[in-house]
Sequence to fold (246 residues):
Amino acid sequence: MPNESGDLKLLANFRKLIDLVSADNDYKPSNTVLKPSALETQHGSGLAAANGVPANFATNMVAISDRETGFAEVNPTVSRIHGLAKASGAAPEKIADLNTFRRKLIPQRKAKGKAAAVGGEASTAAPETQKQHSSSQRSYDNQVGHLRGYLGVLGTIEDYKPNEADLKLPALQSWVDDLQAKNDAVSSTFVPLSQARARRDSLLYTDQNSIVNTALLVKEYVKGSQGTKSPLYQQIKGLEFKRRGK
Fold:
């Protein structure tokens, strides 16, 4: 797949190609697509499309970093809430209900030195399906869902009345809403990034009239009109214009 450094190299070579053919008095293509003015326009569009990718990438990366920072507080915050819930004197069945969601939010540590004996052989590795299930439960979307379930149970505990402002139920609801917003921001900022990449790829590599195809046609025109030994062809033949994936 094309990358930003490869894009800039391609555009730099296209810039050199335009400058070289524009300065040659014998460069007179009948195909309007190959005329210097059309090449200039194509270069400008391609450069704008290429520059749009890192700009949108930066926005997406900021959203990803914000999400990681926000969700890093899930485990310690849930541990604090759970401690206060138990200390409130909540009924055991309520704590059991909270534990159902807590187990999905906080990975359980493996007991050291223990192994399950299967057929006389010890096995310390968890089955792959179990690992995949655990990973799925810990996805950002699922964490938000489990937190809402946890807070739903917490709201039924009448004696849960902490003095800590950040652990009061309304504050916790706002906290989860903020986590949801951070998670949504990653998706919403990825859309323009994906669109920018698609436009970049189309204009530079994949369209019929892409920069790569146009540059190769310019070379063919110069080779046909002036010959391979002409000064202009000798100047442009070494400029690389590779199609996507090559």
Q: What stands out?
A: The CA atoms of residues 41 and 199 lie 16 Å apart.
